[in-house]
Amino acid sequence: MNSQFWDPEIETMPGKQLEKLQVERLKKTIELAMNSSFYAPKFKELGITPDCIKTVDDIHRLPFTTKQDLRDNYPFGLASVPLEKVVRVHSSSGTTGKPTVILHSQKDIDQWADTMARSMYCIGLRNTDVIQNTSGYGMFTGGLGIQYAAERLGAMSIPAGAGNSLRHLKFIEDFGTTALHCIPSYATRLAAVMKENGVDPRDTKIHTLIIGAEPHSEAQRKRIEELWGAKAYNNFGMSEMCGPGVAIECQEQNGMHIWEDNYIVEILNPDTLENVPDGELGELVLTTLNREAMPLFRYRTHDLTRFLPSDCPCGRTHKRLDRFQGRSDDMMIVKGVNIYPIQIEKVLMQYPELASDYLITLETIEDNDEMLIEVELANATDDFAALQNLSKSISRRLKDEILLTPNVKLVGKGVIPQSDGKAVRVKDLRHNH
Ligand code: ADP
Ligand code: ZN
Predict the structure, then answer these.
(1) Which of 130, 138, 352, 363 matches a 20 to 30 Å C-alpha distance to 381?
(2) Can you give the pTM of this predicted structure?
(3) Which of 283, 307, 329 is at the close of a domain?
(4) Distance 331 CA to ligand 1 centre (A)
């Protein structure tokens, strides 16, 4: 297969045709969900049947689904097929509370593997690659999701799993790993462990990293690419939408193509739930078009992003999403100002003197909100004057970005506690939080 596309027909399908496919699949999905004890009464009440759907815009007639709905109907209340058709159960990582459960039929698993394989192909991976996965192989979808896709692609897969950086290093060297799947915070941590053990990640065969599962800035990506001497591609997934493989950057590295044959994509104002004007920031709301065990309609992801202008030089017609700003629940309100951790990261990563780990602590001091930013130094130094200048400069630049002046504390390597899963960037110790 020499094509630049895994599935040329689908990936380059003209907009109008893609919409027609979406309408067909949405109708089918509604028909399926009429078997769900969660959706059936809702549809009945709203008078929704497959025949109501004539264009993609008719999505507006459908009800929203929230994480709370999934929690309230835990574990199997949203099934649209008899449970004997379910072959696997996954759950979210539980970053924002009680984990939610997602059901998969065999067809769902096959479709998911195929789409993630398509995503791998899209960033240039082929069956000649050796793909090592650093995600946990449990209920978290980053393990098996990547595994099945790498096998579908026909690559050699290394299901190394989470943790144990020295073992990862050994596999990278022994097996000639060419591609690594990891969360961005682990990409920098593993690189540091390798360097401590005398191996420069740039000297390995790794040419590609698939990074995702947590927000990261463009500056962070550049650092990762620099550290590894490899390309790093942003990959978006969430367990409610299968897992990894919902959207990925192409080799242009300018926005993630979201696979519209699988999802209807809306970006809405989270307060009014109306569409935001094209190109403006809003909440991503997704409807599954290709899942049978547990289809979800207008699922509120709480992730904030925007559409990028549609034509991509790569030839794929599927819309592109901008790098995520974070989740709406990541937003901090400090002294009345709305701030996202990623805004702070963007500034910190501009300083080569700083390493990649940082922690934002919010406290109440004498009835005032105070923000402390601890950030690790790239190299140890006892040049006190230089450190003072550096922290002053960081505070100033942060003030330009977030409109208030935080306390900046420069700390040594390894001082900031590391989490086992996704990086924890904010600790809110304020009295009323
Ligand atoms: P949890 O919500 O418990 O973390 P998941 O493991 O399903 O559960 O993670 C999905 C969430 O991870 C997304 O809703 C999003 O907030 C975040 N995420 C995933 N991929 C990316 C990415 N490439 N960039 C930013 N955030 C991401
Ligand atoms: Zn593209």
Answers:
(1) 363
(2) 0.92
(3) 329
(4) 15
* CB of 357 shorter than 6 A to ligand 1: no
Contacts of 227 (CB under 8 A, 6+ apart): 187, 188, 191, 201, 202
Residues 262 and 356 in one domain: no
Residue 293 C-alpha to ligand 1 middle, in angstroms?
21
Region for residue 261 given its phi and psi (left: phi exceeds 0; alpha: psi -120 to 50; beta: otherwise)? alpha
From first to last of the 433 residues of the chain, give the pLDDT tens digit.
458 999 999 999 999 999 999 999 999 999 999 999 999 999 999 999 999 999 999 999 999 999 999 999 999 999 999 999 999 999 987 777 777 899 999 999 999 999 999 999 999 999 999 999 999 999 999 999 999 999 999 999 999 999 899 999 999 999 999 999 999 999 999 999 999 999 999 999 999 999 999 999 999 999 999 999 999 999 999 999 999 999 999 999 999 999 999 999 999 999 999 999 999 999 999 999 999 999 999 999 999 999 998 799 999 999 999 999 988 888 899 988 889 999 999 999 999 999 999 999 999 998 889 999 999 999 988 899 999 999 999 999 999 999 999 999 999 988 998 887 888 899 999 976 6
Same domain? 202 vs 117: yes
SS3 content of the chain, % helix, strand, coil (to 5): 35, 25, 40
Ligand at minimal distance from the CA of 5 is 2
Query: How far away, in angstroms, is 136 Cα from ligand 1 center?
Result: 15
Whether residue 412 has its Cβ less than 6 Å from ligand 1? no
Ligand 1, atom 10: nearest CA belongs to which residue? 238
Q: Is the CB of 214 under 6 A from ligand 1?
A: yes
The domain spanning residue 149 has which CATH number?
Answer: 3.40.50.12780
For residue 234, CA distances in Å to 125, 131, 154, 411 come to 14, 16, 22, 29
Residue 20 corresponds to which amino acid? K
Same domain (yes/no): 86, 123: yes
- Domain residues for the domain of 361 are 332-428
